[in-house]
Amino acid sequence: MNYTKKLIVEPGTKVRLKQFDPAGHGKGDAEQDAEQELAAVKARIGVLQRKMYGDNRHSLLIVLQGLDAAGKDGVCWHVIGGMDPQGCKVQGFKAPTAAEAAHDFLWRIHPHAPAKGEVAVFNRSHYEDVLVTRVHQLAPRKVWERRYDLINDWERLLAVENGTTILKFCLVVSKEQQLKRFAERLGDPHRQWKISDSDYKERAFFDDYLDAFDETLERTSTAHAPWFTIPCDHKWFRNLAVAHIVLDAMEALDLQYPEPTVDLEQIRRAYHEAAGDEPTGGKRKQH
Fold first, then answer.
1. What share of the chain in percent tops pLDDT 90?
2. What phi, psi does 258 have (nearest 5°)?
3. Spatial distance between the Cα atoms of 92 and 23, rounded to a whole number of angstroms
4. Domain 3-256 carries which CATH code?
5. Domain residues of the chain, as ranges?
6. What is the structure's pLDDT at 194?
7. Which of 87, 164, 227, 285 could bridge across to 221 with cysteines, CB 3.0–4.6 Å?
8. What is the pTM of this model?
9. Distance between CA atoms of 190 and 229, rounded to whole angstroms?
10. CA–CA distance from 177 to each of 17, 23, 70 (Å)?
């Protein structure tokens, strides 16, 4: 399957997540083969990410948005975990602090955009301000509706002016699977820390969130910052799909290691001298 082509939200596309199949996984995919394939894709991503760090001409921003239990943390563990932390950072965005709320809504976001050579992952993002804000009516419609254009302008700045590749993933889980995962957390001491008071309260707004995502994807999926809708009822497919899309984007950058900035022959001579070899790099001295 060409995951990038299959799951992208083309600009101008009408989106209806209520008609989307969160359990979809493609006819050609099989769970028993997914683990091995994911490992190979992650290894390739790791190589390219280190090359991006050395190349220092490009950057990558990965945005993860989705309802509770869709798997934002899971993608970080199983896909982003294949990257070198020296050139990759993950940033989460919860409810704004008082200081953040006193500024424009992108003020707290921009400092976490990736520098050249870096990968930045937003586990929740600036899109909270057109999703949560809309669903819970935290601001008038005229306020959050203007934010679509402001977001598009900001992402255009990153992509066009700074060479940042932007990949935005809408992780879609069914209401039934979400409830099942909540139950699994309750029974697993290693995951109970993830339980929130808002988990079940937010379920009452499930359909409202889908409507909010529909408009968000329609208005902010652009050629330079596309959205991808990822079915998440099957964790193995979610991880594999995201990994393949990230790999496709990184391979398209034609990343190259930079040329050395030192005289390699001089360095080699210094090495051989330090190692006790002949200055010419010939046979090692006999002792």
1. 83
2. -70, 160
3. 26
4. 3.40.50.300
5. 3-256, 261-287
6. 74
7. 227
8. 0.92
9. 29
10. 15, 9, 9
- pLDDT tens digits, 33-75: 999 999 999 999 999 999 999 999 999 999 999 999 999 999 9
Q: What is the pLDDT of residues 184-207, one digit of tens each?
A: 888 888 778 777 777 788 999 999
Read off φ and ψ for residue 260, nearest 5 degrees: -60, 145
In the chain, the amino acid numbered 167 is L
Q: Name the residue with tokens 């290693």.
A: 190
Which pLDDT value is given to residue 280?
A: 52
In sequence order, which residues have a C-beta less than 8 Å from that of residue 194 and are 6 or more positions away?
Answer: 73, 185
Q: Is 1 exposed, middle or buried (0-12, 13-18, 19+ CB in 10 A)?
A: middle
In angstroms, the Cα distances linking 185 to 17, 98, 176, 277 are: 26, 31, 15, 62
What's at 208, amino acid-wise? Answer: D
Query: Which residue is listed with tokens 């529909």?
Result: 214
**Distance between CA 58 and CA 165 in Å, rounded?**
8
